[in-house]
From TrEMBL:
GO molecular function terms listed in the Swiss-Prot or TrEMBL record: ATP binding; magnesium ion binding; phenylalanine-tRNA ligase activity; tRNA binding
Cofactor note: Binds 2 magnesium ions per tetramer.
Protein name, UniProt field: Phenylalanine--tRNA ligase alpha subunit
The protein's required cofactors: Mg(2+)
Family the UniProt entry places it in: Belongs to the class-II aminoacyl-tRNA synthetase family. Phe-tRNA synthetase alpha subunit type 1 subfamily.
PANTHER family: PHENYLALANINE--TRNA LIGASE, MITOCHONDRIAL, PHENYLALANYL-TRNA SYNTHETASE
Entry's Gene Ontology cellular component terms: cytoplasm
Native species: Thermosipho melanesiensis (strain DSM 12029 / CIP 104789 / BI429)
BP terms from Gene Ontology: phenylalanyl-tRNA aminoacylation
Reaction(s) the record says it catalyses: tRNA(Phe) + L-phenylalanine + ATP = L-phenylalanyl-tRNA(Phe) + AMP + diphosphate + H(+)
Ranges of residues in domain Aminoacyl-transfer RNA synthetases class-II family profile: 105-303
């Protein structure tokens, strides 16, 4: 048996083993129960007595050497596998992160906040009121007589004879005046409800009421306030025009148009608070005067962004929403 060749072969195999499983096979091949070295030890008995010590010593030496090589290699392979494992799970913190789609506020919320900021900057306070109203706040106190079409069940959503979903934000005028003493300046954004549904009307839409009560308030104050709002929303060149109209709770009453992108577009209703409304809340109409307006948020957004169909606001289609 060429021990030198055996050692060389084994050394070569060990050094070229590139994973732990192969290294184990090599260990078994040489040092296992039926391994080459083990078999040599068994052969010891067959040798003449005087040769046994020398042969035994050589085989032992080879075995020790192989064990040493095997354990060195095992360490090396373990180290290598560890590095590979870490390499696999390593995170490169310098890589750009996965980009996530970010949401944003709904266009109506944005318009609402924009308007709130504008009116707050002019000294108005934001107040809110209930969406379920009684007919007194929604109609009677607002000087809206029994015969008015808005009171018809065809036009409104009633729970019972005296309770309905508010048809406008104007009942907030009443609630505010009953609670506070003049002078006062409030705006009130919120949802309102009517039995309407087409490309320019929704059964639920959003208004912002405005009310200013003080001494000697004139139409000029109303017009200036609306012009200021229009310039901030539609740009410095925006103009405002008042056309005679009718609301039971204002006298005189106006439809208000804004000059934008080359045409006059109607955006709101307004007027001077009717003396009867002041009487209904216990204000002396000889002492106090005021203006009120109610603007449609969807309407403002449609004019500003050229949106054709009001139903797009509630369709919840991101392809529409992400444009604004
Ligand atoms: N409430 C009226 C509407 O919904 C708008 C309005 C408000 C008009 C205040 C005048 C004054 O049509």
């Amino acid at each position: 048996m060429d021990v030198k060749k055996l050692l060389d072969d084994a050394t070569g195999e060990i050094s070229s083993a590139n994973d732990i499983a192969i290294l184990n096979q090599i260990r078994v091949k040489y040092l296992g129960k039926k391994g080459v070295i083990t078999l040599m030890m068994k052969k010891l008995k067959e040798l003449p007595k005087e040769e046994r010590p020398k042969f035994g010593a050589v085989v032992n030496e080879v075995r020790n050497k192989l064990e040493e090589l095997l354990s060195e290699k095992l360490e090396e392979l373990k180290q290598k596998e560890k590095v590979e494992r870490y390499e696999k799970i390593r995170v490169d913190v310098s890589l750009p992160g996965a980009k996530r789609d970010k949401g944003h506020l709904h266009i109506l919320t944005k318009i609402q906040r924009e308007l709130e900021d504008i009116f707050i900057s002019m000294g108005f306070e934001v107040v809110e009121g209930p969406e379920v109203e009684d007919t007194w706040h929604n109609f009677d106190a607002l000087n809206t007589p029994e015969w008015h079409p808005a009171r018809d069940t065809q036009d409104s959503f009633y729970f019972d004879e005296n309770t309905l979903l508010r048809t406008h934000t104007s009942p907030i005028q009443i609630r505010t005046m009953l609670e506070k003493k003049p002078p006062l300046a409030i705006i009130s954004p919120g949802r309102v409800f009517r039995r309407d549904y087409d490309s320019t009307h929704l059964p639920m839409f959003t208004q912002m009421e405005g009310l200013y009560v003080d001494k000697d308030v004139t139409v000029r104050h109303l017009k200036y306030t609306l012009e200021e709002m229009a310039r901030k929303i539609f740009g410095e060149s925006a103009k405002v025009r008042l056309k005679p109209s009718y609301f039971p709770f204002t006298e005189p009453s106006y439809e208000v148009d804004v000059w934008f992108n080359g045409s006059w577009l109607e955006i709101l209703g307004a007027g001077m608070v009717d003396p009867n409304v002041f009487k209904n809340v216990g204000y002396d109409p000889e002492e106090w005067s005021g203006f009120a307006f109610g603007l449609g948020l969807e309407r403002i957004a449609m004019v500003k962004y050229g949106i054709r169909d009001i139903r797009d606001f509630v369709r919840n289609d991101v392809r529409f929403l992400e444009n604004y």
